[in-house]
Amino acid sequence: MASARPMVNHRGPEFRRLVLDVTARLKWFFRTENDVLTLTASGTGGLEAAVVNTLSPGDRVLAVSVGVFGDRFAAIARAYGADVVKLDFPWGKAADPDQIAARLAADPNIRTVLVTHNETSTGVTNDLTAISKIVKERDRLLLVDAVSSLGALPLPVDQLGCDVVVTGSQKSWMIPPGLAMISISRAGWEACARATMPRFYFDLASAKRSLEKGETPFTPAVSLFFALEESLRMMEEEGREAIAERHRRVGAQARDGVRDLGLALLADERVASNTVTAVKAPDGIETRELLRILREEHGVVLAGGQGRLADKIFRIGHLGWVTEADIDAALSALRVVLARMITATDNR
Ligand SMILES: Cc1ncc(COP(=O)(O)O)c(C=O)c1O
Predict the structure, then answer these.
(1) Cβ–ligand 1 contact at 44 (below 6 Å)
(2) Cα(343) to centroid(ligand 1), Å
(3) Which of 151, 92, 98, 114 is nearest to 273 (CA)?
(4) Of 271, 251, 260, which is closest to residue 91 (Cα–Cα)?
(5) 174-214 pLDDT, tens digit each
């Protein structure tokens, strides 16, 4: 286990080599020449960093939301005093790029757009290619929550012109939670120089200055950097395209399997995510109980719904080190447990 390696001084040569090496390799996965900084924080910390480093209180921002995490991005901006214009889409649907274009055209004061690439709460992947085209054609700043996509789903950061992109260690990167990786474009740094929202721990300019010396401003989660070095090695061995292709396969397999069980997907099929599948709970089935039996009797851990989807859906996660055999095992267990619960309900 890489993360169990003996500790090193985070101001010493071993960590210096490690942080610079990991950063260069992350850039390859981000497909970017932009700066990439790794913060010791969860994904939400990375989103907060994106907001406080590029915005000033009173700045008008468009927050595009298709679920819980889109709402969270908006809430962070609001918490720091941004003037947030919310553009909500029904949960299970993707954001409509034309509506984003219309909002930007109608409100020239909006200079920044927040968007979730892959909405984990609903199992929907937004069309970031179309959205980034609209935002960048109008020369607005684009902040992207790619916590549950980058590394598993194609996201060519520079090709799409994404200014700030945030991902989290516990997702595609297959290591424990605790690191947020974030890329910032030249326009992102220009915004940073102007931005006056308060920041200290998440000050990205200070993180950049430290990285130039092979350090981080504060004590980093050194063990997670060890683990990241190893997971990047595994990911490079498999290859960027092969990883994306595997996620396409397991995503399709999960959705087909769910439909074969007679269950309905929450997400519109055309925009369904290849990293998470949200399934509508069948009538009369208590999702909490379903998840408990799957966990305790079959060792299969699925997630419940979040926010207003609590008890209405359950979710099958399939990002990171997930194979067809894992999906098969989850679907077989689901078949057995559902059959039992439906029989019990019928006999009541
Ligand atoms: C799309 C998305 N954004 C943000 C987050 C928040 O990340 P964290 O829980 O690491 O703070 C998550 C977590 O699941 C997520 O899936």
Answers:
(1) yes
(2) 36
(3) 92
(4) 271
(5) 999 999 999 999 999 999 999 999 999 999 999 999 999 99
Strand 313-317 and strand 141-145: pairing? Answer: unpaired
pTM of the model: 0.97
CA of 32 to the centre of ligand 1 (A): 22
**Ligand 1: which of 119, 120, 319 to mutate, judged by most atoms within 8 Å of the beta carbon?**
120
Cβ pair 144, 166 in contact under 8 A: yes
Q: How many CB atoms lie within 10 A of CB 184?
A: 27
Each residue's pLDDT tens digit, 236-287: 999 999 999 999 999 999 999 999 999 999 999 999 999 999 999 998 899 9
Which atom of ligand 1 is nearest to 117's Cα? 1
Which residue(s) pair with 316 in the sheet? 277
Q: Is the CB of 69 within 6 Å of ligand 1?
A: yes
Ligand 1 test: best mutation among 40, 122, 144, 148, most atoms within 8 Å of CB? 148
Q: Secondary structure of the chain: what % helix, strand, coil (to 5)?
A: 50, 20, 35
